Amino acid sequence: MQAHSVLTSVILVNVLSGPFAPPASAQDLVEMADLREAALERTNASRSEADLASLAHSDVLDAAAQSHAADMLTRGYHSHVSPDGETPFDRFLAAGGNSWSVSGENIATCTGCTVPPDLDRIQAFHDGWMQSPGHRRNILSAGFDSFGFGIAGSGSTVYAVQTFSGPGEDEGGAGSALSPEQVAGTALQQINDARADAGLGPLEADADLDEAADRVLDHLAEDRDDLPENIFELLPEGSTGWTSLAVQTATLGGSGASIGRGDLSAIISDWEQAANPREILGGPTASHVGFAADAAGGGRLSAVALFGGR
To answer: From residue 157, how far is each of 24, 33, 121, 151, 190 by CA, in Å?
Structure first.
């Protein structure tokens, strides 16, 4: 009887049963490791042909993939969303994934297949995924840097799951990253453009406010909530003459490994919408601004603007 495969994929902007059971011996563990290594090798070979960086093996993604393959086999369904509503990102987070990352999932099932599955079945699943546009996009996504694989079979039915995660794609693609100086200059330009649209005057950059914004950024990076109630205490020693200070912060997920113009535009647009109309980007009392931003890894980007008036 000819084996029949069904494939589906999903991209997200985070127990085997029967004859092919959970690894219980050193030999079983070696066999599962061989299947996972083969799946990763084929994925990275396809990425190499597309001039993309190789993916790294991830225990977290293995766990997410294996739990879903086993669950689909046990409960007899074929979907990215489980019968009780669990999504691929739910499984990614439950396995210990980074909530700031983007994740993706390819799934496949085969009926009339040999159990336990062998390397030929891994190759067949990979070939099928590469011939499907949605699956191919996951395998060849520049926004992913990690890979996991799970597979479960019983009788003559096999379910396989590929899982992916990473920081997301850099806005504008390779070479679009802004230098620290370009980040500050671009942010100032975009802030002033937004203020002009709101009928407000332009701001000047200020080194003391930059330093204070960096201090706020450190708090964000460490998820600390101990900023001083009096934000004037953030200013460096000897910085005087300020009559007003206002802070706006933002944290994005899935924003890539660097900072681009589009990232800054999204942040500043969010600040515009979140502010009271009279307080947009510092409001009429602001005369200067300090800015700090950091792409901290895993797709997390944090930014701080400190608006000061003299």
So the answer is: 21, 20, 12, 11, 56
Alpha carbon distance 97, 113 (integer Å):
32
Tens of pLDDT, residues 124-144: 999 999 999 999 999 999 999
DSSP assignment letter at 20 = B
Phi, psi of 41 (to 5 degrees): -60, -40
Q: pTM score > 0.85 for this model?
A: no
CA–CA separation, 163 and 66 (whole Å): 9
* Closest CA relative to residue 108, chosen from 163, 155, 167: 163
Strand, helix or coil at 213? helix
Tokens of 107: 């799934």
| pLDDT, tens only, 79-126 | 999 999 999 999 999 999 999 999 999 999 999 998 889 999 999 999
User: Does residue 36 contact residue 57 with C-beta atoms inside 8 Å?
Assistant: yes
Rounded to 5°, the CA angle 111-114-116 comes to: 115
What is the residue whose two structure tokens read 């390819």?
106
Task: Check: CB of residue 289 under 8 Å from CB of residue 279.
Answer: no
Q: Is the peptide bond before 83 cis (omega within 30 degrees of 0)?
A: no
Q: What distance in Å separates the CA atoms of residue 125 and residue 119, rounded to the nearest whole number?
A: 10
